[in-house]
Amino acid sequence: MSTVTPRGWVGSVLRWAWLIAVGAVVAFPVYVTVVSAVLPSGDVMAGRLVPAPGRLTLGNLRDALDTVPLARQYLMSVAVTLVQAGAQLLTATIAAYALVFTRWRGRRLAFTAVLATLAIPNESLVIPNFELVTSLGLRDTLLGIVVPYLAAGYAVFLLRQAFADIPTEVMEAARLDGCDDIRALVRIVLPMCWPQLITAGLWSALSAWNGFFWPLLITDSPQRRTVQVGLSQLVTGESTSPAVIYAGTLLVLLPTLLLVVFGQRLLARGLASRITA
């Protein structure tokens, strides 16, 4: 029978104490947002963090939806997220397959170029992207928001490393069975790399949902802006109460929380998978 030494017991206690402390620090702003979103404005101004059941209200959520067109902007954000994440996942899958399983001159140079894009700040591309989208007549449209982000270097890198982990014998056997590239990709590669695919998809979805500066720049009408831009308008409004701002923040925060909560195991598995050069 194994016994726990005093040193091991103390180490376990310290680790749990550290995890609890870090969890409390991370969860506290979320708790404040949730509580303040369902309290009257006077209670929020008084700094009450322990709500009484009889004081809870949903009026702040209704006021947030009425102050700015958050409902319409919510739909716009969902559309942007679906289109942008889907496009990035599709382009990354095709590019990663080409970088790993096909032989062509300049393949290493192309992968180096993909890695180089990770070092380019998005702010440096704003003016060229703005001129391109404007020249295409896509300003203040859904396509105008997503066109510059139909592909992402990080998603290509992540899937390329995942595809490189597949044994060459598996692909050689597929070739002998008569599989072409599309069949090999759909039936062999994708089922073997689904954790990394989901990780790339969640990363792309979170990036699209949290986008702020580019949707603000390329859209003009409030109905065609994303919910992040709408939240900023809610914050800067002179007549908006703190409770209504917290309610709007909760509406914006909820989808990302759900993605992280339900996809945390897949995210951890995809990011912790073995990476080979």
From TrEMBL:
<dbReference type="InterPro" id="IPR035906">
    <property type="entry name" value="MetI-like_sf"/>
</dbReference>
<keyword id="KW-0813">Transport</keyword>
<feature type="domain" description="ABC transmembrane type-1">
    <location>
        <begin position="74"/>
        <end position="263"/>
    </location>
</feature>
<feature type="transmembrane region" description="Helical">
    <location>
        <begin position="74"/>
        <end position="100"/>
    </location>
</feature>
<keyword id="KW-1133">Transmembrane helix</keyword>
<keyword id="KW-0812">Transmembrane</keyword>
<dbReference type="InterPro" id="IPR000515">
    <property type="entry name" value="MetI-like"/>
</dbReference>
<feature type="transmembrane region" description="Helical">
    <location>
        <begin position="142"/>
        <end position="163"/>
    </location>
</feature>
<feature type="transmembrane region" description="Helical">
    <location>
        <begin position="243"/>
        <end position="262"/>
    </location>
</feature>
<feature type="transmembrane region" description="Helical">
    <location>
        <begin position="16"/>
        <end position="39"/>
    </location>
</feature>
<dbReference type="Pfam" id="PF00528">
    <property type="entry name" value="BPD_transp_1"/>
</dbReference>
<comment type="similarity">
    <text>Belongs to the binding-protein-dependent transport system permease family.</text>
</comment>
<protein>
    <submittedName>
        <fullName>Carbohydrate ABC transporter permease</fullName>
    </submittedName>
</protein>
<feature type="transmembrane region" description="Helical">
    <location>
        <begin position="109"/>
        <end position="130"/>
    </location>
</feature>
<feature type="transmembrane region" description="Helical">
    <location>
        <begin position="184"/>
        <end position="206"/>
    </location>
</feature>
<keyword id="KW-1003">Cell membrane</keyword>
<keyword id="KW-0472">Membrane</keyword>
